[in-house]
Structure formats: structure tokens, C-alpha cells
């Protein structure tokens, strides 16, 4: 297939693009390469896919990978660009779209709310419009476990109420699900929303716990442990996430019994790990004890997440199987090599 992957310079987008290419698909990657975090990390991911820095930094220019036998092209483009995005769809004739581009981060949404509306709401509407107008059969898009907000029922199930988000980021992701439902109903194409649960691993985002803890410990600085460590997360290794996303893109929704046009799945590790146990595992892998700064809960954060992934197992034979210790070891190995 020919697949558009938005957010291709991002953490999950890079891994999904790499997996799709390895499976023989043709991938067009899109990213605006904003400065929410270090753009050098984003450009380094693209270089792994064969896109050199100079080419990646040009706006609205489609560039082919220089790597032999790699079927990857990249364009630097923002989803909010209402004129250039349709031109890309018209020229490329995609078989499917995987929308992973978004303004990420719960805490940053308290500081810069406009960025979330521009990218996650306006940008997502533009994607939906292009899917409608250019005959896209299947749109797979990133939602988030944050939509569960103040939900206290554990594990989280897609049938649970998600009407009480506690961050603007979560509210924009909930709005994406509602918008996708509307477009599937009105225009008859398949949409699949994926509620990601705390993804970690090599090439991860610098604003996430795994990265922050590792960097602080190696630099001899204290780590910030919120809610005094009384938190649990469904930590999910990137390879398990990537496998799930690619399976969904490769399997036609119409082949799944009683599968509606609009569908939401949890995608996680199907398990909950205590934050303090996660930190212990990082310390063991680094062989360094961390100085822990215990702090109160942050605004917009939640105490516990845990994904019920039964539907994904049933429909796509999804079985996450990476132990936390193995995933942490892989991240730290990458981190040491990348930062020398």
C-alpha cells in the first residue's frame, strides 16, 4: 500500500514508518518539525529513514530517501495548512492514512493552549476533509489514554464514559474521536482511533518520564516524583505499539466481523506498573541510585492508567509481550549511544 504517516519525525511516527517500510509498503511521511522539543532528535530520526537534514528542513518540498530500497518520502508540512495538504493528497493517491501528528504533552497544554487547537483540532479537521475528498478508505489516528480523565474504574475500557477530561490535550483528543465518528457516519469511510497508553523506548520523547528520569540520574540530578510516587501507569514498549498500529493498517476493516465504520481501541501493555517500581528498574539498569524529589500531583495528571486491550487482541491478534525491564534496558542502551 501507499500510506501517509503524519508526525513521521515523532517518536511513534518514526517507528511506524520504519516498520511499514520494512513490510514492503510505500510511505510518505509528514511533519512540521516544530520546536516543542529538540528538533535535532526529530531530524536524527528522519536521517535513520534516509532523509538528510538539509532536505528535511525545507517547507512543502517532497523529498525521497537516499537509502537504497527504502520506499520513503518526506514532506515538511503543518496539518493546519489548508491549501498545501489537499495538494499532497491529490498528487499521491494514498491507500490509507495514519495520523500521528499532534501537539503532544498534557502539561504544555496549560501554557500554550492555542497550539493544541491549531494542530489537534483544526489540523485533524483538515485530515478528515482530505480523507473525504480523496477517497481514503481507512484513517487510523492517535487518540490518548488521557481521555479517561477522572475515570476511577480500572482497567479502562473503551465503553467507559470519557466526558470528564482534566487537560486541554485530553479534550482535543476526545474531540478527534467525535469528529471521526461524524465523518465515518456522514461519508462512509472507516476510521480507527487508538488510545495510546504511556509509550516508551528508544528514540522516545524528551518530555516523558523515561527520558527525564534517565537524563537526571546520569547527570547526578534529583528526579521529580509526583504525587509522592503514588502513581501507576500502563507502560507500553514502542515495539508493541508499532506492531499493533501496523497490523491495523494492513488488515482491511471490512474483513473484521461486525466491525463498524467507526471504531476505538485501547492500545497498551494490558498491565499497570507502579511508578516507584518503574524507577527501581531504571536505577537497576543504570546501576545508579536516584535522588528522589517527592512532589504533589501536577494539574492535569491522573493517578492510575491501565488499558483493557481485549478488543485489539480479538480483532488483530495483538499481544504486547515486552517486559518492562527489557524495554528499559533497550531505551538506556539507545540513550547512551545517542548522547555518547
From TrEMBL:
Top-level taxon of origin: Bacteria
Pfam family, one: Epimerase
Transmembrane segments: none
Gene3D superfamilies linked: NAD(P)-binding Rossmann-like Domain
Signal peptide: none
Ranges of residues in domain NAD-dependent epimerase/dehydratase: 3-268
InterPro entries the record matches: Epimerase_deHydtase, NAD(P)-bd_dom_sf
Protein name: UDP-glucuronate 4-epimerase
Gene source species: Kriegella aquimaris
Amino acid at each position: 500500500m501507499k500510506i501517509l504517516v503524519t508526525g513521521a519525525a515523532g517518536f511513534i511516527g518514526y517507528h511506524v514508518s520504519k516498520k511499514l517500510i520494512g513490510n514492503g509498503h510505500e510511505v510518505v511521511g509528514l511533519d512540521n518539525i516544530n520546536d516543542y522539543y529538540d528538533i535535532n532528535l526529530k531530524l536524527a530520526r528522519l536521517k535513520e529513514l534516509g532523509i538528510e537534514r538539509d532536505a528535511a528542513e525545507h517547507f512543502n518540498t517532497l523529498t525521497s530517501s537516499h537509502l537504497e530500497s527504502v520506499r520513503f518520502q518526506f514532506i515538511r508540512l503543518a496539518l493546519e495548512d489548508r491549501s498545501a495538504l489537499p495538494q499532497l493528497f491529490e498528487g499521491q493517491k494514498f491507500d490509507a492514512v495514519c495520523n500521528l501528528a499532534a501537539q503532544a504533552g498534557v502539561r504544555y497544554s496549560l501554557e500554550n493552549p492555542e497550539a493544541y487547537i491549531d494542530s489537534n483540532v483544526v489540523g485533524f479537521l483538515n485530515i478528515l476533509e482530505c480523507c473525504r475528498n480523496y477517497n481514503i478508505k481507512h484513517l487510523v489516528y492517535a487518540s490518548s489514554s488521557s481521555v479517561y480523565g477522572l475515570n476511577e474504574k480500572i482497567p479502562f475500557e473503551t465503553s467507559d464514559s470519557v466526558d470528564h477530561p482534566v487537560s486541554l490535550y485530553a479534550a482535543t483528543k476526545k474531540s478527534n474521536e467525535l469528529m471521526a465518528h461524524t465523518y465515518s457516519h456522514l461519508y462512509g469511510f472507516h476510521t480507527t482511533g487508538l488510545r495510546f497508553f504511556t509509550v516508551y523506548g528508544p528514540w522516545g520523547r524528551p518530555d516523558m518520564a523515561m527520558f527525564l528520569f534517565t537524563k537526571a540520574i546520569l547527570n547526578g540530578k534529583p528526579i521529580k516524583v509526583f504525587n509522592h510516587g503514588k502513581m501507576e501507569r500502563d507502560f507500553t514498549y514502542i515495539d508493541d505499539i508499532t506492531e499493533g498500529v501496523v497490523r491495523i493498517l494492513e488488515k482491511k476493516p471490512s474483513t473484521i466481523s461486525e466491525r463498524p465504520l467507526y471504531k476505538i481501541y485501547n492500545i497498551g501493555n494490558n498491565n499497570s506498573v507502579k511508578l516507584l517500581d518503574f524507577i527501581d528498574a531504571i536505577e537497576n539498569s543504570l546501576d545508579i541510585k536516584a535522588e528522589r524529589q517527592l512532589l504533589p500531583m501536577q494539574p492535569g495528571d491522573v493517578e492510575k492508567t491501565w488499558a483493557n486491550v481485549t478488543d485489539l487482541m480479538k480483532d488483530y491478534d495483538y499481544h504486547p509481550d515486552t517486559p518492562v525491564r527489557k524495554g528499559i534496558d533497550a531505551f538506556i542502551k539507545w540513550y547512551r549511544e545517542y548522547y555518547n
